[in-house]
Write a structure and sequence with these properties.
heterodimer, A: alpha+beta, elongated, B: about 425 residues, alpha/beta, Rossmann fold, Ubiquitin-like (UB roll), de novo design (two linked rop proteins), 3 domains, 4-stranded parallel beta sheet, 4-stranded mixed beta sheet, 8 strands, binds flavin mononucleotide, binds iron/sulfur cluster, binds FE2/S2 (inorganic) cluster
Chain lengths: ~170, ~425
Protein backbone atom coordinates (compact mmCIF):
# COMPACT_ATOMS: atom_id res chain seq x y z
CA UNK A 1 0.00 0.00 0.00
CA UNK A 2 1.24 3.47 -0.72
CA UNK A 3 1.59 6.12 1.92
CA UNK A 4 -1.31 7.98 0.37
CA UNK A 5 -3.78 5.13 0.81
CA UNK A 6 -6.79 7.07 2.15
CA UNK A 7 -7.96 4.24 4.42
CA UNK A 8 -4.66 4.21 6.24
CA UNK A 9 -4.26 7.97 6.44
CA UNK A 10 -7.76 8.53 7.80
CA UNK A 11 -6.83 8.25 11.51
CA UNK A 12 -4.72 11.36 11.02
CA UNK A 13 -6.23 14.69 10.00
CA UNK A 14 -4.58 16.77 7.30
CA UNK A 15 -3.70 19.28 10.00
CA UNK A 16 -1.88 16.61 12.00
CA UNK A 17 -0.05 15.36 8.92
CA UNK A 18 1.08 18.89 8.04
CA UNK A 19 2.38 19.42 11.56
CA UNK A 20 4.23 16.09 11.53
CA UNK A 21 5.76 16.76 8.10
CA UNK A 22 6.90 20.14 9.39
CA UNK A 23 8.86 18.36 12.16
CA UNK A 24 10.26 15.86 9.67
CA UNK A 25 11.57 18.68 7.51
CA UNK A 26 14.05 19.75 10.27
CA UNK A 27 15.39 16.23 10.81
CA UNK A 28 17.85 14.00 8.98
CA UNK A 29 15.60 10.88 9.20
CA UNK A 30 11.81 10.54 9.03
CA UNK A 31 11.62 8.28 12.09
CA UNK A 32 13.46 10.89 14.17
CA UNK A 33 10.10 12.70 14.34
CA UNK A 34 8.46 9.75 16.13
CA UNK A 35 8.04 11.39 19.52
CA UNK A 36 7.04 14.75 18.05
CA UNK A 37 4.44 13.00 15.89
CA UNK A 38 2.97 11.12 18.84
CA UNK A 39 2.76 14.38 20.77
CA UNK A 40 1.11 16.20 17.88
CA UNK A 41 -1.58 13.56 17.60
CA UNK A 42 -2.07 13.50 21.34
CA UNK A 43 -2.42 17.28 21.40
CA UNK A 44 -5.28 16.98 18.89
CA UNK A 45 -7.02 13.90 20.29
CA UNK A 46 -6.02 13.64 23.94
CA UNK A 47 -4.45 10.21 23.44
CA UNK A 48 -2.94 7.95 20.76
CA UNK A 49 -5.20 5.13 19.53
CA UNK A 50 -4.01 1.96 17.78
CA UNK A 51 -5.34 3.37 14.51
CA UNK A 52 -3.50 6.68 14.89
CA UNK A 53 -0.34 4.87 15.94
CA UNK A 54 -0.46 2.68 12.84
CA UNK A 55 -1.00 5.73 10.64
CA UNK A 56 1.94 7.60 12.20
CA UNK A 57 4.16 4.54 11.77
CA UNK A 58 3.26 4.38 8.09
CA UNK A 59 3.83 8.10 7.63
CA UNK A 60 7.31 7.85 9.20
CA UNK A 61 8.34 4.63 7.44
CA UNK A 62 8.46 2.69 10.71
CA UNK A 63 6.94 -0.59 11.81
CA UNK A 64 4.00 -0.38 14.20
CA UNK A 65 5.95 -2.36 16.81
CA UNK A 66 8.90 0.02 16.61
CA UNK A 67 6.68 3.03 17.16
CA UNK A 68 4.64 1.40 19.92
CA UNK A 69 7.86 0.53 21.75
CA UNK A 70 8.63 4.24 21.76
CA UNK A 71 5.09 5.34 22.62
CA UNK A 72 4.86 3.03 25.63
CA UNK A 73 8.30 4.05 26.95
CA UNK A 74 7.29 7.63 27.67
CA UNK A 75 4.92 8.26 30.56
CA UNK A 76 3.37 11.34 28.97
CA UNK A 77 2.26 9.56 25.79
CA UNK A 78 -1.17 8.14 26.57
CA UNK A 79 -2.12 4.90 24.81
CA UNK A 80 -5.51 4.84 26.58
CA UNK A 81 -8.14 7.57 26.61
CA UNK A 82 -7.67 10.00 29.48
CA UNK A 83 -9.97 12.55 31.12
CA UNK A 84 -10.35 16.13 29.90
CA UNK A 85 -7.58 17.10 32.31
CA UNK A 86 -4.76 14.94 33.55
CA UNK A 87 -3.70 15.49 37.15
CA UNK A 88 0.03 14.83 37.53
CA UNK A 89 0.57 14.51 41.26
CA UNK A 90 4.17 14.80 42.43
CA UNK A 91 5.04 11.73 44.51
CA UNK A 92 8.76 12.57 44.86
CA UNK A 93 10.63 13.01 48.07
CA UNK A 94 10.24 16.70 48.99
CA UNK A 95 6.49 16.59 48.39
CA UNK A 96 6.33 13.35 50.36
CA UNK A 97 8.20 15.02 53.25
CA UNK A 98 5.60 17.79 53.25
CA UNK A 99 2.64 15.42 53.52
CA UNK A 100 1.97 14.76 49.85
CA UNK A 101 0.52 11.30 50.59
CA UNK A 102 -2.31 12.80 52.64
CA UNK A 103 -3.12 15.31 49.93
CA UNK A 104 -3.15 12.56 47.34
CA UNK A 105 -5.49 10.46 49.51
CA UNK A 106 -7.79 13.45 49.69
CA UNK A 107 -7.84 13.67 45.88
CA UNK A 108 -8.46 9.96 45.55
CA UNK A 109 -11.43 10.12 47.92
CA UNK A 110 -12.85 13.26 46.44
CA UNK A 111 -12.67 12.03 42.86
CA UNK A 112 -13.25 8.38 43.76
CA UNK A 113 -10.33 7.21 41.63
CA UNK A 114 -6.90 5.73 42.21
CA UNK A 115 -3.69 6.37 40.25
CA UNK A 116 -4.39 5.46 36.64
CA UNK A 117 -8.12 6.03 36.99
CA UNK A 118 -10.46 8.46 35.24
CA UNK A 119 -13.49 10.00 36.94
CA UNK A 120 -16.90 8.69 35.91
CA UNK A 121 -17.73 12.03 34.23
CA UNK A 122 -14.53 11.88 32.18
CA UNK A 123 -13.22 15.10 33.64
CA UNK A 124 -9.98 13.98 35.36
CA UNK A 125 -7.34 11.27 35.15
CA UNK A 126 -4.98 10.93 38.12
CA UNK A 127 -1.33 9.97 37.55
CA UNK A 128 1.84 10.16 39.66
CA UNK A 129 4.74 12.23 38.34
CA UNK A 130 8.38 12.75 39.25
CA UNK A 131 9.46 15.97 41.02
CA UNK A 132 7.90 19.01 39.32
CA UNK A 133 10.81 21.28 40.22
CA UNK A 134 8.71 23.16 42.74
CA UNK A 135 9.99 21.52 45.91
CA UNK A 136 10.15 24.75 47.93
CA UNK A 137 6.36 24.94 47.53
CA UNK A 138 5.64 21.27 48.17
CA UNK A 139 3.30 19.47 47.79
CA UNK A 140 2.78 20.25 44.12
CA UNK A 141 0.76 18.96 41.17
CA UNK A 142 -0.17 19.84 37.60
CA UNK A 143 -3.80 19.95 36.50
CA UNK A 144 -3.70 20.06 32.73
CA UNK A 145 -1.09 22.70 31.91
CA UNK A 146 -1.35 24.47 35.25
CA UNK A 147 0.97 24.08 38.21
CA UNK A 148 -0.57 24.17 41.70
CA UNK A 149 1.53 24.17 44.84
CA UNK A 150 1.54 24.56 48.64
CA UNK A 151 -1.39 22.13 48.45
CA UNK A 152 -3.78 21.61 51.35
CA UNK A 153 -7.05 19.65 51.39
CA UNK A 154 -8.91 22.99 51.26
CA UNK A 155 -6.90 24.09 48.23
CA UNK A 156 -7.66 20.79 46.50
CA UNK A 157 -11.39 21.36 47.07
CA UNK A 158 -11.10 24.71 45.33
CA UNK A 159 -9.00 23.48 42.42
CA UNK A 160 -10.90 20.33 41.57
CA UNK A 161 -14.57 20.47 40.79
CA UNK A 162 -16.39 17.43 41.93
CA UNK A 163 -15.55 14.55 39.60
CA UNK A 164 -18.60 12.38 40.07
CA UNK A 165 -21.98 13.93 39.31
CA UNK A 166 -23.92 10.80 40.20
CA UNK A 167 -23.35 11.23 43.91
CA UNK B 1 29.95 44.31 39.50
CA UNK B 2 27.25 41.98 40.52
CA UNK B 3 27.99 39.14 42.89
CA UNK B 4 24.85 37.33 41.76
CA UNK B 5 25.35 37.07 38.00
CA UNK B 6 22.90 34.20 37.53
CA UNK B 7 19.94 35.80 39.26
CA UNK B 8 20.50 39.52 38.69
CA UNK B 9 17.71 39.63 36.10
CA UNK B 10 15.39 37.38 38.06
CA UNK B 11 12.47 39.00 39.78
CA UNK B 12 9.36 36.82 39.94
CA UNK B 13 7.25 39.80 40.91
CA UNK B 14 8.28 41.79 37.84
CA UNK B 15 7.94 38.75 35.55
CA UNK B 16 10.30 37.51 32.84
CA UNK B 17 13.15 39.69 31.55
CA UNK B 18 12.52 40.25 27.84
CA UNK B 19 15.12 41.37 25.35
CA UNK B 20 14.80 45.14 25.84
CA UNK B 21 15.52 44.98 29.55
CA UNK B 22 18.05 42.22 29.05
CA UNK B 23 20.02 44.32 26.58
CA UNK B 24 19.74 47.39 28.78
CA UNK B 25 21.50 45.37 31.52
CA UNK B 26 24.50 44.65 29.25
CA UNK B 27 22.77 41.62 27.79
CA UNK B 28 24.24 40.21 24.54
CA UNK B 29 27.31 42.37 25.17
CA UNK B 30 29.43 39.21 25.52
CA UNK B 31 28.05 37.94 22.22
CA UNK B 32 28.84 41.24 20.47
CA UNK B 33 32.36 41.23 21.85
CA UNK B 34 33.01 37.59 21.02
CA UNK B 35 31.36 36.31 17.86
CA UNK B 36 33.74 37.05 15.01
CA UNK B 37 35.99 39.06 17.41
CA UNK B 38 37.68 36.36 19.46
CA UNK B 39 38.76 32.97 18.17
CA UNK B 40 36.90 29.90 19.46
CA UNK B 41 40.21 28.70 20.90
CA UNK B 42 40.51 31.89 22.96
CA UNK B 43 37.03 31.44 24.37
CA UNK B 44 37.80 27.82 25.20
CA UNK B 45 40.86 29.01 27.11
CA UNK B 46 38.71 31.40 29.12
CA UNK B 47 36.32 28.61 30.05
CA UNK B 48 39.20 26.29 30.96
CA UNK B 49 40.85 28.94 33.10
CA UNK B 50 37.62 29.71 34.89
CA UNK B 51 37.53 26.18 36.38
CA UNK B 52 33.81 26.00 35.69
CA UNK B 53 32.44 22.59 36.60
CA UNK B 54 29.16 21.21 35.24
CA UNK B 55 26.10 22.13 37.29
CA UNK B 56 23.99 19.15 36.13
CA UNK B 57 25.17 16.89 38.94
CA UNK B 58 28.48 15.31 38.05
CA UNK B 59 30.68 18.41 38.27
CA UNK B 60 32.77 17.58 35.22
CA UNK B 61 35.09 20.46 34.17
CA UNK B 62 33.31 22.20 31.29
CA UNK B 63 36.42 23.41 29.46
CA UNK B 64 37.88 19.93 29.42
CA UNK B 65 34.62 18.45 28.17
CA UNK B 66 34.54 20.91 25.26
CA UNK B 67 38.19 20.35 24.37
CA UNK B 68 37.36 16.86 23.04
CA UNK B 69 35.17 18.25 20.25
CA UNK B 70 36.99 17.94 16.92
CA UNK B 71 37.63 21.40 15.46
CA UNK B 72 38.59 22.50 11.98
CA UNK B 73 36.81 21.66 8.78
CA UNK B 74 33.86 19.30 9.14
CA UNK B 75 31.42 17.97 6.60
CA UNK B 76 28.26 18.08 8.68
CA UNK B 77 26.49 19.49 11.71
CA UNK B 78 27.88 19.88 15.18
CA UNK B 79 25.39 20.18 18.00
CA UNK B 80 25.08 21.96 21.34
CA UNK B 81 22.34 20.55 23.55
CA UNK B 82 21.04 22.18 26.71
CA UNK B 83 19.83 19.71 29.32
CA UNK B 84 16.69 21.32 30.75
CA UNK B 85 15.12 18.04 31.79
CA UNK B 86 15.35 18.90 35.52
CA UNK B 87 13.67 15.91 37.16
CA UNK B 88 16.07 14.94 39.94
CA UNK B 89 13.77 14.79 42.99
CA UNK B 90 14.36 17.78 45.23
CA UNK B 91 15.86 19.90 42.43
CA UNK B 92 14.27 23.23 41.53
CA UNK B 93 16.91 25.57 40.15
CA UNK B 94 16.92 25.49 36.33
CA UNK B 95 13.21 26.28 36.09
CA UNK B 96 13.77 29.65 37.76
CA UNK B 97 16.28 30.71 35.10
CA UNK B 98 14.23 29.30 32.24
CA UNK B 99 11.09 31.14 33.34
CA UNK B 100 12.54 34.49 34.34
CA UNK B 101 15.73 35.00 32.35
CA UNK B 102 15.57 32.92 29.15
CA UNK B 103 17.95 35.29 27.32
CA UNK B 104 20.72 34.52 29.79
CA UNK B 105 20.57 30.89 28.66
CA UNK B 106 20.31 31.81 24.98
CA UNK B 107 23.34 34.09 25.21
CA UNK B 108 25.30 31.38 27.02
CA UNK B 109 24.33 28.91 24.31
CA UNK B 110 25.41 31.21 21.47
CA UNK B 111 28.81 31.69 23.11
CA UNK B 112 29.20 27.99 23.87
CA UNK B 113 28.14 26.93 20.37
CA UNK B 114 30.60 29.40 18.86
CA UNK B 115 33.40 27.91 20.98
CA UNK B 116 32.84 24.39 19.68
CA UNK B 117 31.73 25.62 16.22
CA UNK B 118 28.27 24.09 16.53
CA UNK B 119 25.69 25.26 14.00
CA UNK B 120 22.57 23.75 15.59
CA UNK B 121 21.38 23.83 19.19
CA UNK B 122 18.54 22.16 21.04
CA UNK B 123 17.07 22.94 24.42
CA UNK B 124 15.72 19.62 25.68
CA UNK B 125 13.03 20.60 28.17
CA UNK B 126 10.65 18.46 30.20
CA UNK B 127 7.03 18.57 29.14
CA UNK B 128 5.69 19.85 32.45
CA UNK B 129 7.65 23.11 32.12
CA UNK B 130 4.95 24.72 29.97
CA UNK B 131 5.57 28.28 31.14
CA UNK B 132 9.31 27.98 30.59
CA UNK B 133 8.78 26.51 27.12
CA UNK B 134 6.51 29.37 26.07
CA UNK B 135 8.93 32.00 27.33
CA UNK B 136 11.96 30.31 25.77
CA UNK B 137 10.24 30.20 22.39
CA UNK B 138 9.32 33.85 22.64
CA UNK B 139 12.85 34.77 23.70
CA UNK B 140 14.35 32.77 20.82
CA UNK B 141 12.09 34.64 18.39
CA UNK B 142 13.25 37.95 19.89
CA UNK B 143 16.90 36.96 19.60
CA UNK B 144 16.39 35.84 15.99
CA UNK B 145 14.79 39.14 15.16
CA UNK B 146 17.75 41.01 16.59
CA UNK B 147 20.21 38.93 14.59
CA UNK B 148 21.73 37.09 17.57
CA UNK B 149 20.49 33.75 16.26
CA UNK B 150 20.07 32.28 12.78
CA UNK B 151 22.24 32.74 9.71
CA UNK B 152 25.14 35.20 9.63
CA UNK B 153 24.89 36.30 13.27
CA UNK B 154 25.56 40.07 13.57
CA UNK B 155 27.02 39.98 10.07
CA UNK B 156 29.97 37.83 11.15
CA UNK B 157 29.21 34.86 8.92
CA UNK B 158 28.60 32.57 11.89
CA UNK B 159 25.35 30.55 11.76
CA UNK B 160 23.63 29.08 14.80
CA UNK B 161 20.04 27.84 14.85
CA UNK B 162 18.40 27.13 18.19
CA UNK B 163 15.31 24.94 18.72
CA UNK B 164 13.29 23.89 21.75
CA UNK B 165 12.49 20.18 22.00
CA UNK B 166 9.76 19.30 24.48
CA UNK B 167 10.17 15.87 26.04
CA UNK B 168 7.49 13.22 26.58
CA UNK B 169 8.50 12.29 30.13
CA UNK B 170 10.82 9.84 31.99
CA UNK B 171 13.59 10.85 34.37
CA UNK B 172 16.22 8.87 32.45
CA UNK B 173 16.03 11.42 29.61
CA UNK B 174 18.23 13.62 31.82
CA UNK B 175 21.15 11.20 31.41
CA UNK B 176 22.99 12.82 28.53
CA UNK B 177 23.24 9.85 26.16
CA UNK B 178 19.64 8.78 26.85
CA UNK B 179 18.72 12.38 26.10
CA UNK B 180 20.41 12.14 22.71
CA UNK B 181 18.48 8.96 21.87
CA UNK B 182 15.29 10.72 22.86
CA UNK B 183 16.17 13.72 20.66
CA UNK B 184 16.59 11.23 17.81
CA UNK B 185 13.01 10.09 18.42
CA UNK B 186 13.96 6.80 20.08
CA UNK B 187 13.45 5.20 23.49
CA UNK B 188 15.58 7.02 26.04
CA UNK B 189 18.04 4.23 26.75
CA UNK B 190 21.55 5.35 27.70
CA UNK B 191 24.30 4.65 25.17
CA UNK B 192 27.58 2.89 25.73
CA UNK B 193 30.61 5.19 26.11
CA UNK B 194 32.92 5.38 24.21
CA UNK B 195 32.25 6.77 21.71
CA UNK B 196 31.71 9.91 23.75
CA UNK B 197 29.10 12.41 22.54
CA UNK B 198 31.83 14.99 21.89
CA UNK B 199 32.94 12.78 19.00
CA UNK B 200 29.78 10.87 18.10
CA UNK B 201 26.64 12.27 19.67
CA UNK B 202 23.36 13.40 18.16
CA UNK B 203 22.80 11.64 14.82
CA UNK B 204 26.42 10.46 15.08
CA UNK B 205 27.81 13.99 15.00
CA UNK B 206 30.01 15.80 17.57
CA UNK B 207 27.75 17.00 20.39
CA UNK B 208 28.08 18.74 23.72
CA UNK B 209 25.39 18.36 26.39
CA UNK B 210 25.41 20.84 29.24
CA UNK B 211 23.07 21.77 32.05
CA UNK B 212 21.09 25.05 31.99
CA UNK B 213 23.03 26.60 34.87
CA UNK B 214 26.39 25.59 33.35
CA UNK B 215 25.56 27.33 30.06
CA UNK B 216 24.33 30.46 31.84
CA UNK B 217 27.68 30.76 33.60
CA UNK B 218 29.42 30.96 30.21
CA UNK B 219 27.75 34.32 29.57
CA UNK B 220 29.42 35.78 32.65
CA UNK B 221 32.80 34.05 32.28
CA UNK B 222 33.14 35.44 28.77
CA UNK B 223 31.66 38.79 29.73
CA UNK B 224 33.71 39.46 32.85
CA UNK B 225 36.66 37.12 32.54
CA UNK B 226 37.86 33.94 34.24
CA UNK B 227 39.66 35.74 37.07
CA UNK B 228 36.55 37.54 38.14
CA UNK B 229 34.65 34.25 37.98
CA UNK B 230 37.22 32.47 40.10
CA UNK B 231 37.15 35.24 42.69
CA UNK B 232 33.45 34.64 43.31
CA UNK B 233 34.03 31.26 44.98
CA UNK B 234 34.87 31.08 48.69
CA UNK B 235 36.64 27.73 48.58
CA UNK B 236 38.22 25.61 45.87
CA UNK B 237 35.47 25.97 43.28
CA UNK B 238 34.76 29.01 41.11
CA UNK B 239 31.66 31.07 40.61
CA UNK B 240 28.31 31.12 42.30
CA UNK B 241 25.76 28.34 42.51
CA UNK B 242 22.03 28.09 42.80
CA UNK B 243 21.65 26.33 46.14
CA UNK B 244 18.34 25.27 47.60
CA UNK B 245 16.66 23.62 50.53
CA UNK B 246 13.34 21.78 50.73
CA UNK B 247 11.63 19.83 53.49
CA UNK B 248 10.54 21.07 56.91
CA UNK B 249 12.76 24.12 57.18
CA UNK B 250 11.24 27.51 58.00
CA UNK B 251 11.84 29.07 54.58
CA UNK B 252 12.37 26.54 51.82
CA UNK B 253 13.84 28.20 48.73
CA UNK B 254 16.56 28.61 46.16
CA UNK B 255 19.36 31.18 46.48
CA UNK B 256 22.36 32.14 44.40
CA UNK B 257 25.36 32.04 46.73
CA UNK B 258 29.11 31.84 46.34
CA UNK B 259 30.45 28.39 45.61
CA UNK B 260 31.90 27.15 48.87
CA UNK B 261 29.18 28.60 51.11
CA UNK B 262 28.89 26.34 54.15
CA UNK B 263 25.98 23.94 54.48
CA UNK B 264 25.19 25.45 57.87
CA UNK B 265 24.82 28.92 56.39
CA UNK B 266 22.44 27.61 53.73
CA UNK B 267 20.25 25.70 56.16
CA UNK B 268 20.37 28.09 59.11
CA UNK B 269 20.59 31.55 57.55
CA UNK B 270 18.91 31.18 54.18
CA UNK B 271 16.38 28.47 54.92
CA UNK B 272 15.80 29.83 58.44
CA UNK B 273 16.63 26.58 60.23
CA UNK B 274 14.20 23.82 61.14
CA UNK B 275 10.54 24.46 61.84
CA UNK B 276 9.46 24.83 65.47
CA UNK B 277 9.67 21.55 67.38
CA UNK B 278 11.80 19.77 64.81
CA UNK B 279 15.50 18.97 64.72
CA UNK B 280 17.76 18.23 61.76
CA UNK B 281 18.40 14.50 61.47
CA UNK B 282 20.12 14.33 58.08
CA UNK B 283 20.01 15.68 54.54
CA UNK B 284 20.73 14.83 50.94
CA UNK B 285 23.06 17.63 49.78
CA UNK B 286 22.24 17.66 46.07
CA UNK B 287 19.11 15.76 45.07
CA UNK B 288 17.78 12.24 45.44
CA UNK B 289 20.85 10.45 44.12
CA UNK B 290 23.34 11.79 46.66
CA UNK B 291 24.40 10.19 49.96
CA UNK B 292 22.92 11.40 53.25
CA UNK B 293 25.01 13.71 55.38
CA UNK B 294 24.49 14.53 59.07
CA UNK B 295 24.28 17.62 61.33
CA UNK B 296 28.00 17.09 62.04
CA UNK B 297 28.64 18.08 58.42
CA UNK B 298 27.11 21.57 58.67
CA UNK B 299 30.51 23.26 58.68
CA UNK B 300 31.49 21.80 55.32
CA UNK B 301 31.70 24.05 52.29
CA UNK B 302 29.49 23.28 49.32
CA UNK B 303 32.39 22.46 47.00
CA UNK B 304 32.56 19.43 44.74
CA UNK B 305 35.64 17.92 46.35
CA UNK B 306 34.76 18.81 49.94
CA UNK B 307 31.40 17.07 49.74
CA UNK B 308 32.99 14.13 47.93
CA UNK B 309 35.52 13.73 50.73
CA UNK B 310 32.67 13.65 53.24
CA UNK B 311 31.27 10.64 51.36
CA UNK B 312 28.56 12.30 49.33
CA UNK B 313 28.22 14.42 46.20
CA UNK B 314 27.23 18.04 45.70
CA UNK B 315 24.95 16.87 42.89
CA UNK B 316 22.56 19.64 41.89
CA UNK B 317 23.21 21.68 45.07
CA UNK B 318 19.56 21.60 46.12
CA UNK B 319 19.35 19.93 49.52
CA UNK B 320 16.56 17.76 50.82
CA UNK B 321 16.25 18.16 54.56
CA UNK B 322 15.12 15.29 56.82
CA UNK B 323 13.77 16.20 60.25
CA UNK B 324 13.79 14.00 63.35
CA UNK B 325 10.05 13.21 63.12
CA UNK B 326 10.39 11.77 59.62
CA UNK B 327 11.10 8.05 59.35
CA UNK B 328 14.34 7.46 57.42
CA UNK B 329 13.12 4.04 56.25
CA UNK B 330 9.95 5.55 54.80
CA UNK B 331 11.94 8.34 53.17
CA UNK B 332 14.33 5.89 51.52
CA UNK B 333 11.35 3.76 50.46
CA UNK B 334 9.94 6.82 48.68
CA UNK B 335 13.29 7.42 46.98
CA UNK B 336 13.67 3.81 45.85
CA UNK B 337 10.09 3.72 44.54
CA UNK B 338 11.12 6.60 42.30
CA UNK B 339 14.38 4.99 41.17
CA UNK B 340 12.71 1.63 40.50
CA UNK B 341 9.96 3.26 38.47
CA UNK B 342 12.36 5.37 36.45
CA UNK B 343 14.77 2.56 35.50
CA UNK B 344 14.87 2.46 31.72
CA UNK B 345 14.84 -1.34 31.90
CA UNK B 346 17.90 -1.91 29.75
CA UNK B 347 20.10 -3.77 32.24
CA UNK B 348 19.11 -6.42 34.76
CA UNK B 349 20.68 -5.27 38.06
CA UNK B 350 18.79 -1.99 37.79
CA UNK B 351 15.54 -3.25 36.25
CA UNK B 352 15.17 -6.19 38.67
CA UNK B 353 17.31 -5.09 41.59
CA UNK B 354 15.71 -1.72 42.33
CA UNK B 355 12.13 -3.10 42.58
CA UNK B 356 13.50 -5.84 44.86
CA UNK B 357 15.08 -3.21 47.09
CA UNK B 358 11.83 -1.23 47.08
CA UNK B 359 9.81 -4.29 48.16
CA UNK B 360 12.21 -5.04 51.01
CA UNK B 361 12.02 -1.45 52.23
CA UNK B 362 8.24 -1.60 51.97
CA UNK B 363 8.23 -4.77 54.07
CA UNK B 364 10.48 -3.22 56.70
CA UNK B 365 8.44 -0.01 56.87
CA UNK B 366 5.17 -1.94 57.13
CA UNK B 367 6.43 -4.20 59.94
CA UNK B 368 6.95 -7.28 57.78
CA UNK B 369 10.75 -7.06 57.73
CA UNK B 370 13.07 -9.96 58.63
CA UNK B 371 16.58 -9.69 60.09
CA UNK B 372 17.97 -11.20 56.83
CA UNK B 373 16.56 -8.26 54.91
CA UNK B 374 19.38 -6.05 56.11
CA UNK B 375 21.90 -8.45 54.59
CA UNK B 376 20.08 -8.40 51.28
CA UNK B 377 20.05 -4.61 51.29
CA UNK B 378 23.76 -4.48 52.10
CA UNK B 379 24.73 -7.06 49.50
CA UNK B 380 22.45 -5.86 46.71
CA UNK B 381 23.40 -2.29 47.47
CA UNK B 382 27.07 -3.07 47.05
CA UNK B 383 26.42 -5.01 43.84
CA UNK B 384 24.06 -2.56 42.15
CA UNK B 385 25.91 0.46 43.46
CA UNK B 386 29.27 -0.49 41.98
CA UNK B 387 30.10 1.61 38.95
CA UNK B 388 30.48 -0.72 35.99
CA UNK B 389 27.90 -3.31 37.03
CA UNK B 390 25.18 -1.32 35.33
CA UNK B 391 24.97 0.38 31.96
CA UNK B 392 24.59 3.92 33.34
CA UNK B 393 24.81 5.93 36.57
CA UNK B 394 21.10 5.65 37.38
CA UNK B 395 21.43 2.52 39.51
CA UNK B 396 24.57 3.59 41.41
CA UNK B 397 22.78 6.90 42.06
CA UNK B 398 19.82 5.00 43.48
CA UNK B 399 22.06 3.22 45.96
CA UNK B 400 23.71 6.38 47.34
CA UNK B 401 20.83 7.44 49.63
CA UNK B 402 20.14 3.81 50.58
CA UNK B 403 23.64 2.76 51.61
CA UNK B 404 24.26 6.01 53.46
CA UNK B 405 20.90 5.71 55.28
CA UNK B 406 21.87 2.22 56.40
CA UNK B 407 25.26 3.51 57.47
CA UNK B 408 23.90 6.40 59.52
CA UNK B 409 20.42 5.26 60.55
CA UNK B 410 20.89 1.50 60.92
CA UNK B 411 19.21 1.54 64.33
CA UNK B 412 16.05 2.85 62.73
CA UNK B 413 15.97 -0.05 60.29
CA UNK B 414 16.60 -2.56 63.08
CA UNK B 415 13.91 -1.07 65.31
CA UNK B 416 11.38 -1.53 62.52
CA UNK B 417 12.37 -5.17 62.09
CA UNK B 418 12.48 -6.01 65.80
CA UNK B 419 9.35 -4.11 66.77
CA UNK B 420 7.46 -5.21 63.62
CA UNK B 421 6.18 -1.67 63.14
CA UNK B 422 7.35 1.79 62.20
CA UNK B 423 8.34 3.59 65.42
CA UNK B 424 7.51 6.93 63.79
CA UNK B 425 3.96 5.96 62.76
CA UNK B 426 1.25 7.95 64.46
CA UNK B 427 3.88 10.01 66.23
C1 LIG C 1 19.87 9.21 35.67
C2 LIG C 1 20.47 10.55 35.37
C3 LIG C 1 19.66 11.67 35.26
C4 LIG C 1 20.18 12.94 34.96
N1 LIG C 1 19.35 14.01 34.87
C5 LIG C 1 19.87 15.23 34.57
C6 LIG C 1 19.02 16.37 34.43
O1 LIG C 1 17.80 16.29 34.56
N2 LIG C 1 19.59 17.57 34.12
C7 LIG C 1 20.95 17.70 33.94
O2 LIG C 1 21.42 18.78 33.63
N3 LIG C 1 21.76 16.64 34.08
C8 LIG C 1 21.26 15.41 34.37
N4 LIG C 1 22.11 14.34 34.47
C9 LIG C 1 23.54 14.54 34.20
C10 LIG C 1 23.80 14.45 32.70
O3 LIG C 1 24.02 13.11 32.33
C11 LIG C 1 25.02 15.23 32.29
O4 LIG C 1 26.08 14.87 33.11
C12 LIG C 1 24.84 16.72 32.37
O5 LIG C 1 23.71 17.16 31.67
C13 LIG C 1 26.08 17.37 31.83
O6 LIG C 1 26.00 18.75 31.97
P1 LIG C 1 27.06 19.57 32.84
O7 LIG C 1 28.42 19.06 32.47
O8 LIG C 1 26.79 20.94 32.42
O9 LIG C 1 26.73 19.30 34.27
C14 LIG C 1 21.58 13.07 34.78
C15 LIG C 1 22.40 11.94 34.92
C16 LIG C 1 21.86 10.71 35.20
C17 LIG C 1 22.78 9.53 35.33
S1 LIG D 1 21.32 1.42 35.06
FE1 LIG D 1 19.08 1.44 34.92
S2 LIG D 1 18.59 3.33 33.86
FE2 LIG D 1 20.78 2.91 33.46
S3 LIG D 1 20.81 1.69 31.56
FE3 LIG D 1 20.68 0.20 33.24
S4 LIG D 1 18.44 -0.14 33.44
FE4 LIG D 1 18.70 1.74 32.29
S1 LIG E 1 9.54 16.77 45.04
FE1 LIG E 1 7.58 17.46 44.42
S2 LIG E 1 8.06 19.23 43.29
FE2 LIG E 1 10.02 18.45 43.79
Amino acid sequence: MSRKDPLIIQPLSSEEITAIENEVSHLPFRDAAAIDALKIVQAHRGWVSDESLAAIARLLDMSIEELDAIATFYNLIFRHPVGEKVILFCDSVSCWLMGGDNICDHIRQKLDIDYGGTTADGRYTLLPVTCLGDCDHAPAMMVGDELHHDLTPAAIDQILVKGNHNE
Amino acid sequence: MSDRPLTRNIDPVAGPTWIKTYEANDGYQAVRETIGQRSPADVLDMVRESNLRGRGGAGFPTGMKWSFVPMGKTDGHKYLVCNADEMEPGTFKDRIILEYDPHQLIEGMILSAYTIAADVGYIFIRDEYHVATRRLRQAIAEAEQKGYLGNDILGTGYDFHLYVHVSAGRYICGEETALLNSLEGKRATPRAKPPFPQVSGLFGRPTIVNNVETLCNITHIVGKGPDWFKSLGLGDDSGTKLFGASGKVKRPGCWELPMGTTIGEIIEDHAGGMREGLALKGFLPGGASTDFLLPEHLDLRMDYDTIMQAGSRMGTGTMIIMDDKTCPVAMVRNLEMFFARESCGFCTPCREGLPWIFRILDDIEEGRGMPEDMEVLDRQGRFIGAIGNTHCAHAPGAIEPLSSAIRYFREDFEQHIQGKRCPYAGG
